[in-house]
Design goal:
Elements: H1 2-28, E1 41-45, E2 50-54, E3 61-62, H2 71-81, H3 93-106, H4 116-124, H5 132-148, H6 151-161, E4 168-169, H7 171-179, H8 188-196, H9 210-226, H10 232-240, H11 255-264, E5 269-272, H12 276-293, E6 300-307, E7 313-317, E8 339-340, H13 346-356, E9 364-367, E10 386-389, H14 390-395, H15 399-409, H16 411-421, H17 430-433, E11 443-444, H18 446-465, H19 499-509, E12 531-536, E13 542-548, E14 552-559, H20 571-583, E15 599-605, E16 619-625, E17 636-641, E18 660-665, H21 669-678, E19 699-703, E20 709-712, E21 723-729, E22 735-740, E23 743-749, E24 752-756, E25 761-769, E26 774-784
Parallel strand pairs: 1-5, 3-4, 20-26
Antiparallel strand pairs: 1-2, 6-7, 6-14, 8-11, 9-10, 12-13, 13-14, 15-16, 17-18, 19-21, 21-24, 22-23, 22-25, 25-26
């Protein structure tokens, strides 16, 4: 008896283990994931509009699975393929029996009897021959899927992976390839056409056996009519619709952005922040200007439109759209190509100096010939103002004042500032760029630049909307991917730039002179305020323009992808017109709110923009950011005149009690030399009265100025030329006598320029004016250059 009980227990254990093994085998027989075929990369707007796609690695157009299915297609598919889909457990015994009977009679396989679930399993087991053995495996897999997945999931997977003829896989790909529309936008006739294709995709599809395809579609439409899925009018109209006659190319609204998405999210469906209409209009504008620019062999252009509030990219034109023109690099995505910055970084230096408290908008900065070691900056027009307001220097994009301001702020400090603002192209140490950093010595991408400007504008929005608090990272790159929630960093709660500094910077950029087609914009009540800046790289290789409003940033680059320079390729003449036309398609924006809580009233000298000294008679009250530390005016001094006020005097020639004491605005000789040419109201110092000695030399070198080593230029015919020495004198119509190595070489009056050809070696240049003022310069001639 005991032996029988033990034997029974063993049998039960064996059967239990066997059943468990069968169950485990059944549960895990179907691979996970079910289908591992690669998907196409799909790029669409936030509301689902298709912008572009890239084919899957296996050469098939196979869109990633969607989360919903058009009700029309579901109705057509189930009526044609599997009308009992929602009631069977994955297999339909009646259909299988009927198919088996038909195959026996025909002595070949003429019907499969497969449900949609079984067809999905056959797709997952791609390449398997149609046989009773494989049909059995598909049935087992189908039962497994029905236990694991919902009916909706099964249907979605089938519709995403069913073949539709040629290299078209899945409903969505078929809808775009055959009808150039989303499957949700198809008619009943078009939907029925697609529903019958997976039944025999290798035999019939648009362009192959269209008559048979038409018959199948019409039979399905008649069935839909019988089941009252459609009415008689819809049925009659659907029969009149033709079968698609061609295969469409997929949309390519943002070619270069789709390329970027494909690199980072290959085989995924990605929603991007692009506004389709803005994208199309921006691309049209770039193309329209390019058609004119290419006559000057300017072959490439790119543009970005950003929303200030979010940093989202609303339009992304990476290059001109004619991809057939391979010679001109139209495939190159200029948005992410490092290019020389030209002057486009100057507003960031201005803002940084404003933030540090070392700058005021009306402060005069020297604009004179300057040399820093081997670096000699020049203004674009090769002219000089002598002295210029900092806000005007920024608006006019003067190079020499910018270099002087960078020297004041510090190359290392500005280099660090640019890195923190998001400029990723600074791959060398600060010393590698030196002072040329502000004039295009470094490279930046349109992507980084647009993000930097948008972030700066966003500081003003944060100030306005958050009552002066800055709650997250100030500078962040643009974003083209739709995010579920805005990304906010807890780092850097204390801002690097306050709203006050940004406001004064953008306010200066409002005064940049607009292109000819924008002339007189201030006269129109509807004119929008746009703070904007251009840049032109050395050799006319890169033309930049960036514009800022409260809502948008538009950034444009134009040039040649291969770096070839072209005469006339400047930011103001080429890139700026494109930028302003793009702003023309965008909604109007109000201007930023004035950040009054961050401003303090400061009294400044009316002429110099510095804090007034005891000799400044005219002052202004302006608003500057709290913590300003601008220095006292260095250019007002007390002078002593005779009773006629025509001559200066000293105590050596006149009793102090008889003198007339007066405040005077006096620039150094070189600054004065250029300043008075553009400012007729500037009043130079009166000359000294005869017999009164000058207190300081009224002469100053223009060239050579800081340098003590000069080179003899080589002329076009190869012979040595001459070095042009230049002098500034505070007095007009004065004679200056020139001596080289104690030998008299000539005299000058009014304009003091002297061409000399000294020999290689060390020399002494001695100058004396008719009043006895002297100036000495020692220099060394290095040879020809």
């Amino acid at each position: 008896m005991m032996k029988y009980v033990l034997q029974k227990r063993k049998t039960i254990l064996f059967l239990s283990a066997l059943l468990l093994a069968v169950f485990i085998g059944f549960w895990f027989v179907v691979p996970r994931p079910l289908i591992s075929s690669p998907y196409s990369t799909i790029v669409e707007t936030e509301n689902g509009e298709l912008l572009g796609a890239r084919i899957a690695d296996d050469g098939q157009w196979r869109f990633p699975e969607q989360d919903s299915l058009p009700s029309k297609f579901e109705s057509c598919l189930l009526n044609f393929e599997d009308q009992y889909f929602y009631s069977h457990p994955g297999i339909n015994p009646v259909s299988l029996a009927r198919a088996f009977k038909q195959n026996i009679r025909a002595k070949k396989i003429v019907s499969g009897g497969s449900t949609i679930t079984m067809q999905l399993c056959r797709i997952a087991r791609s390449g398997k021959a149609r046989s009773y053995y494989n049909k059995l495996i598909e049935a087992v897999w189908a039962l497994n899927l029905e236990l694991r997945l919902s009916k909706k999931d099964i249907l979605l997977k089938y519709c995403a992976n069913a073949p539709f003829g040629g290299n078209v896989v899945g409903l969505e790909a078929a809808s775009w390839r055959y009808f150039n529309r989303s499957p949700f936008d198809l008619s009943w006739s078009e939907t029925a056409t697609l529903a019958v294709l997976p039944n025999a995709p290798s035999l019939i599809y648009p362009g192959r056996r269209d008559s048979l395809l038409l018959q199948k579609r019409n039979r399905l439409l008649h069935k839909l009519l019988e089941k009252k899925e459609i009415d008689s009018l819809t049925y009659k109209l659907s029969l009149l619709e033709p079968i698609p006659s061609k295969v469409y190319d997929l949309p390519s609204t943002a070619y270069h952005l789709v390329e970027q998405v494909a690199k980072k999210h290959k085989g995924e469906r990605v929603k991007v922040t692009i506004e389709k209409q803005i994208q199309k209009e921006t691309a049209k504008i770039v193309e329209r200007f390019h058609s004119n620019l290419k006559s000057n062999h300017i072959n490439n252009a790119a543009a970005l439109v950003l929303e200030v509030r979010t940093g989202n990219v609303l339009a992304y034109v990476g290059n001109v759209s004619d991809l057939r023109d391979e010679e001109n690099g139209n495939h190159v995505d200029i948005v992410h190509a490092p290019r020389s910055t030209g002057s486009i970084l100057k507003p960031f230096l201005y803002a940084a100096l404003m933030e540090s408290g070392d700058l005021s908008p009306g402060m005069l900065v020297p604009d004179i010939p300057s040399r820093y070691g081997g670096f000699t900056p020049l203004n674009f027009d090769h002219g000089y103002d002598g002295a210029v307001r900092t806000d005007e220097a920024l608006a006019r994009s003067l190079n020499i004042p910018a270099v002087r301001m960078l020297q004041k702020y510090g190359v290392e400090a500005f280099y660090d500032f640019l890195k923190k603002t998001g400029m990723t192209g600074l791959s060398y140490p600060a010393g590698h760029y030196g002072l040329s950093l502000i004039l295009g010595g470094a490279e930046c991408t349109l992507w980084d630049l647009s993000g930097m400007y948008a972030s700066m504008a966003r500081i003003l929005l944060q100030y306005e909307e958050q009552d002066g608090f800055y709650s997250f990272q100030q500078f962040s790159p643009p974003s083209w991917k739709v995010r579920d929630t805005p990304s906010k960093s807890k780092e850097n709660l204390y801002p690097r730039l306050r709203a006050a500094s940004v406001y004064l910077t953008l306010n200066a950029l409002l005064n940049v002179k607009r292109p000819a087609n924008e002339a007189g914009w201030e006269s129109f009540a509807s004119a929008r305020k746009i703070a904007w800046k251009t840049g032109t790289s050395f050799g006319f290789r890169d033309a930049w323009a960036v514009g800022i409003t409260k809502d948008y940033v538009v950034a444009v680059w134009a040039g040649n992808a291969d770096g070839e320079g072209r005469s006339g390729l400047t930011g103001s003449s080429v890139a700026a017109p494109i930028m302003f036309d793009i702003f023309g398609i965008l909604p109007q924006s109000e201007w930023f709110a004035y950040p009054v809580e961050e401003m303090q009233s400061v009294t400044v000298c009316a002429q110099s923009g510095y804090r007034p000294s005891m000799f400044c008679e005219k002052v202004d009250t302006i608003h500057l950011p709290f913590g300003t530390k601008i220095k006292t005016c260095p250019w007002h001094q007390r002078i002593h005149l005779d009773q006629s006020k025509q001559f200066r005097v000293t105590s050596a020639c006149m009793n102090p009690s008889e003198m007339v004491h007066q405040s005077w605005f006096v620039l150094p000789p070189v600054m004065e030399y250029y300043y008075k040419q553009k400012h007729p109201l500037y009043n130079p110092l009166p000359p000294f009265k005869e017999g009164c000695a000058a207190e300081s030399a009224p002469m100053e070198w223009i060239y050579p100025r800081e340098m003590n080593h000069v080179f003899i230029p080589t002329q076009l015919d190869g012979t040595p030329g001459k070095v042009l020495f230049e002098l500034a004198h505070q007095q007009n119509d004065v004679v200056v006598y020139w001596y080289l190595d104690e030998s008299y070489v000539g005299e000058t009056r009014n304009v003091h320029k002297m061409p000399l050809d000294p020999q290689i070696g060390r020399h002494k240049l001695y100058l004396v004016d008719e009043e006895g003022n002297q100036l000495v310069k020692f220099f060394t001639v290095e040879g020809n250059q």
